[in-house]
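REQUEST FORM: STRUCTURE PREDICTION
Request ID: SP-0412
Submitted by: Lab K.M.
Chain count: 1
Length (residues): 152
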Amino acid sequence: MSLISLAGELTETGHRLIQRVYYEDTDFSGVVYHARYLHFMERARTDYLRLLGVEQASLAIEGDPEGLVFVVHRMEIDFKQPARMDDVLTIETTTEKAGGAKMVLQQEIRRAGTLLIAAKVIIAVINGQGRPRRLPEALAIKFLSAGQKIPA
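STATUS: Completed
RESULT:
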């Protein structure tokens, strides 16, 4: 298995990650505990960055006041249907906006095509001192053109 398959794949609209539901993800009733969906979506966003060639550790160099850090500022989640142990989930992430000091991502979690979770995630871009910082244009272009072929 290649590392790219572990990190999912870039798609025409963004990123796709496949995730199995394990016992540890469920509550006493056998359905996925609501907070675990946040973990699934975080993994998908992290792998999305990884496949775009964005290394978060190198952006946020310790002690650099102008370092670049992404933090979740706001999240809206619609819980449509539950997932259960052993379900295979598809987490899809698309970039709605990337510019200024924020990014807006849409995330959906599906099981065999059925929508389980729909989320809007607003990411703030901050510097090493926690103050808003503009997203560099080169990074904005990467997010906005994810999965699309860019003319050379």
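NOTES: Residues 64 and 128 are 6 Å apart (CA to CA).
Reviewed by: T.R.
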